[in-house]
Amino acid sequence: MDATRRSTGWVALIGTLAITAYAVLAALQIIVFTPLAAVPGHTLSEIRAEMAAAGEAPGDAGVLIILGIGVAIAVTVAVLVIRTHGRPVLAALLFLAVLTMGAPAFFIASFGPGMSLSDTFMVSGGVTLYGVAPFYIVSALAGIACIVLGISAAIRPHPVAVTI
C-alpha cells in the first residue's frame, strides 16, 4: 500500500470517527442534556413522564435517524475515497463538508424535541442552553477549514503525468 492510499485511509478513519462522535454527542445533548438543563430539579424520567402526560413526544427516534444519516454519509464517503484511491486532501474536504452540515442537522434534529419540551414546561428554546454552542462552532470551523483547504488545494501545483 503506497503512502497516499495509507494517508487517505487515515483521513477516512479520523473523519468517520469525528462525524460519529459529533452525532453521538449531539444526540446526547438533545435527548439528555437539554431537557435536564431546561427543567432543573427534575430527573430525565420525570421530564419524560410530564411530557407524555401533556401529550408531547420527546422525539428520540427522529433525533437518532437525522443524526444517523450523517454517520451513514461519513461511512459512505470513507468507502468511496478508499475504493477510488482518492487523494487525502479530497477525503479531508469531503469529511469537512459533512461536518459543516452537522449544524443544520443538529438544528433539525433538535427542533421537534425542543418544541415538545417548550410546550410542556413553557421554557425558552434550546439553542441558548449551554452545551449547544460547541456544535455550531465545530461546524463553522469545519466550514472555514473546508474553504481554506479547498483554496490551498486549488492553487497548489499538482504533479502532471507525462506520457510519451
Secondary structure elements and pairings:
Blueprint: H1 3-38, H2 44-53, H3 60-83, H4 88-100, H5 102-121, H6 133-155
Textual characterization of the structure:
There is one protein chain. The protein is elongated, with a radius of gyration of 20 Å. Helix 1 runs antiparallel to helix 3, helix 3 packs antiparallel against helix 4 and helix 3 runs antiparallel to helix 5. The chain has helices at residues 3-38, 44-53, 60-83, 88-100, 102-121, 133-155. The mean pLDDT is 91. With 164 residues, the chain is mostly helical.
The end-to-end distance, rounded to whole angstroms, is 27 Å
**Overall mean confidence score, pLDDT:** 91
Number of DSSP E strands: 0
Shape: elongated
Strand portion: under 5%
Helix content: over 70%
> What kind of assembly state do the chains in view correspond to?
single chain
Radius of gyration, in Å, reads 20 Å
How would you classify the helix and strand content by structural class?
A: mainly alpha
Short description:
The longest helix is centred in the N-terminal third of the chain and has 36 residues, at 3-38. This protein has six helices and no strands. The protein has helices at 3-38, 44-53, 60-83, 88-100, 102-121, 133-155.
Write out key terms for the chains shown.
6 helices, single chain, mainly alpha
